[in-house]
Specification:
By secondary structure, the protein is an alpha/beta fold. 32% of the residues lie in helices and 24% in strands. The strands form four sheets. It has a seven-stranded mixed β-sheet with strand order 5-4-13-14-15-12-16. β9 and β10 form a beta hairpin. α1 packs parallel to α5 and α1 runs parallel beside α9. It is globular. The structure holds flavin-adenine dinucleotide. The site of flavin-adenine dinucleotide has 32 residues, from α1, β3 and α9.
Length: 419
């Protein structure tokens, strides 16, 4: 146990989810200590898309200006067919900003992570690195965590933002990550490397193809360019352990259009990300221990909402805490944690369940071949650029209570589409 005074809240995990939750609760006046297992805080040097339901919250924390300055505000989001490069549909992101009140932006992960880290430092979050949490337990009036080196710490609550392989999650469910057999290659390079490649300098472009897709967007004011290549691994389907290797990358994109082919040589080939999600979980809280971010709801990244949902989680909990502190009276932090955590658990798991499941079907739609591909293309081409029916429930204001949650759109059965 450290000598410093006992904090109100412990956060385990210093990713985007943990840092933003620590910041949110500190801005409500609570004392927060955050533990990260790595020796240094950091993120992968690749891109991240942040939808209006995240930029709205960054604005609330006073951080949006800095994130916009470091990032890029794309003009359109365009979906194309990866085989023939034809445009299927687009979103006008300036119009989208008018609709939702906040921008859709793209950022370098380490820039966003750095903004959150500096925000935490300024707000007074106590940041501890090199501390790997191995157990969580509820105690009288709070919760305790123990670290690999034998130290322990306790507070009124513990938020576990410890990612896909969360230790805390095992207190709630005995499950395993679900292997999608898809793998992602990334590459963020100076813009000059791709300038001659038929790229859109100001847009997010997604090429959807049979069992593969390719994403491109600028970063850092257009000085860098981010690409993501995702494909289904035959070796994964065959049950092999050595799946997702660069030879599979090359084969997966054979037959794709020129702009995709030209982008592939700029991918990093020395590391790749195998894509797992988990079955949705409806209980995230046990006593004074609560899950947050990927620990609670790791998605496949097809809706670009993983980090965004993690940011929303911390904001929602802090809003409920803030509402209580407005009527502050008692000892300790003055928070009635049972009520605050129940309010958190009443709204977030259902929303995130929808996103995780929709991300799976969204991925299936992207990866169709044959007739289904043609049906998909017909549906996408028929979409009005200014139709937001599929987006309001995600990009609209984050709900604080279940009754604010907008109804989910109904998926279009592809078999009913004539091509
Ligand atoms: P993590 O980032 O996994 O952070 C967990 C932290 O906890 C880490 O720092 C880890 O070191 C620490 N930790 C773990 N265990 C312990 C322990 N026992 N003790 C102490 N510390 C511990 N999301 C978007 O919103 N937009 C996108 O465009 C997007 N694109 C993506 C593209 C790809 C290819 C992938 C793979 C994901 C993408 N995502 C995107 C998803 C997003 O990256 C994640 O959902 C998000 O980073 C999760 O944040 P987190 O803080 O919950 O977890």
């Amino acid at each position: 146990t450290t000598d410093a005074p006992r904090p109100d809240v412990l956060v385990v995990g210093g990713g985007i989810g943990g840092l933003s939750a620590a910041l949110a609760l500190t801005l409500q006046g609570l004392r927060v200590r955050l533990y990260e297992q790595a020796r240094e805080f950091g993120e992968v040097g690749a891109g991240l898309q942040l939808a209006p339901n995240c930029t709205r919250i960054l604005h609330d924390y006073g951080l949006l200006g800095e994130v916009v300055r470091l990032g890029f505000l794309p003009e359109h989001m365009i979906m194309k067919d990866a085989l023939d490069a034809s445009e299927l549909t687009r979103v006008d992101l300036k119009d989208m900003e008018r609709r939702y009140g906040f921008p859709y932006l793209v950022t370098h992960r380490s820039d966003l992570h750095g903004v959150l880290l500096r925000g935490c430092e300024r707000a007074g979050v106590e940041l501890v690195t090199g501390a790997r949490c191995v157990t969580y337990e509820n105690i009288e009036g709070g919760a305790r965590v123990t670290f690999a080196d034998g130290r322990s710490d306790e507070a009124e609550i513990v938020l576990a933002a410890d990612g896909l392989h969360s230790v805390a999650r095992t207190l709630l469910v005995d499950d395993e990550p679900v292997n999608s057999a898809y793998v992602a290659y990334r590459g963020a390079v100076p813009f000059e490397r791709v300038a001659a490649n038929d790229v859109h300098e100001k847009d997010v472009v997604l090429y959807v193809g049979p069992h593969c897709h390719f994403v491109q967007y600028p970063l850092r004011g257009g000085r860098m360019f981010n690409q993501v290549a995702v494909f289904r691994s035959p070796k994964a389907l065959a049950g092999r352990d050595d799946w997702g290797t660069p030879d599979e990358l090359d084969r997966a994109f054979e037959g794709t259009c020129g702009p995709v082919q030209k982008g592939l040589p700029s991918m990093w080939r020395d590391r790749w990300w195998r894509m797992f999600d988990r079955e949705p979980l409806t209980k995230w809280v046990t006593g004074r221990i609560a899950l947050l971010g990927d620990a609670a709801h790791p998605p496949l990244q097809y809706m670009a909402q993983g980090a965004v949902m993690a940011v929303e989680d911390g904001w929602v909990l802090a809003q409920h805490v803030g509402a209580q502190l407005a009527k502050r009276s008692v000892r300790g932090s003055g928070v009635d944690w049972e009520t605050a955590l129940a309010a958190y658990e009443a709204v977030r798991p259902e929303h995130c369940r929808r996103v995780v499941l929709t991300a799976r079907s969204w991925g299936e739609l992207w990866h169709h071949s044959g007739t289904k591909r043609e049906q998909r293309n017909a549906v996408m081409r028929a979409r009005d650029t200014y139709d937001y029916a599929f987006m309001d429930w995600v990009y609209g204001p984050t709900s604080l209570t279940p009754d604010q949650e907008p109804p989910m759109y109904r998926t279009i059965p592809l078999d009913s589409v004539r091509v």
